[in-house]
Amino acid sequence: MTYDEFNEFCASLSATEMVFQWGGSYVWKVGGKVFAIGGWGENEPAFTFKTSELVFENLKDQPGLRGAPYFASRGMKWIQHYARPGLSDDELKSYITESHHLASLNLSKKKRLELGL
Predict the structure, then answer these.
(1) What CATH number belongs to 3-107?
(2) Which helix (DSSP H) or strand (DSSP E) does residue 104 occupy?
(3) What is the pLDDT of residues 59-73, one digit of tens each?
């Protein structure tokens, strides 16, 4: 997945906004809550997303994936796809969609209704 494809996909999800943050990364938010980051890649595009605890444990040691720098070191369950083989584009989209959902659950019920979530 390229950054353009990543940004196009994230923009297609409900109630999202993108800001440049943290060294020029593409930071995607839902209701002000971060759900995906495109950036921090050394040689290839890197994509970071929030997961459940179970998914985090299943993904963190797979080739091309790791606990996201900064987030995982603070106990947060975020995965970074940083190298091949990593995830297929379809798998990555599925995890980003779930991350969007997880982030939206941290919004108040009123805010979720306001955003149509």
Answers:
(1) 3.90.1150.30
(2) helix 89-104
(3) 999 999 999 988 767
